[in-house]
Amino acid sequence: MKILKYILGIVAILVIGFFLLGVIKSEQSYECEILVDKPLAESWAVSQDEEKLSQWLEGFQKFEHVSGTPNTVGAVSDVYFITDGQEMTIRETITEIVPDESVSMTFTSDFMDMDYTLAMKSVDGKTKISSSTKAIGNGMVSKSMMALMSSALKTQEETNLTSLKKTIEENSKNYSAVEN
After folding, report:
1. For the segment 23-46, what is each residue's pLDDT rounded down to a tens digit?
2. Is the model's pTM score more than 0.85?
3. Which of 82, 123, 124, 144 is most solvent-facing, going by the fewest CB within 10 Å?
4. Any stretches that span the bilayer, and where are they (predicted)?
5. Using CA atoms, how far apart are residues 178 and 180, in angstroms rounded to an integer?
């Protein structure tokens, strides 16, 4: 009986600690950066090309426009991913867009809400791509889980940017021929 009390006490401390972690570290923020050996205009065009999203966003399946004018402020879309064999839908809303410079979006899912900015800058004929992310869990369990996953979230973004770099540098599509 005494061992059972110790085990229950340890479990209670772990549960309290888990939820306390979500209270203390409820918001996750991180930034990533990469340098691409292609000019800014091409880098921007590749990053905005819906046909290339699956090449640099892990698990990306499809993109469905919901409302607003596509690729403009206020446009809302559902983005579908497969993660660990399960489909996940994230609602994306464009909050700001400056062509060839930056795009800011909010992402909403059952698990978390995220503010995300992808920015590009020309540096000696190359392109510096940076991302800034702020994410918060929806609910105490989500907040606590995100606090435990904070390094994994940043690692995933670094992987995405590395894949974007590869996609841009291997690009053979001529975007200047399709621009207005």
Report:
1. 778 788 999 999 999 999 999 999
2. no
3. 124
4. 6-24
5. 7
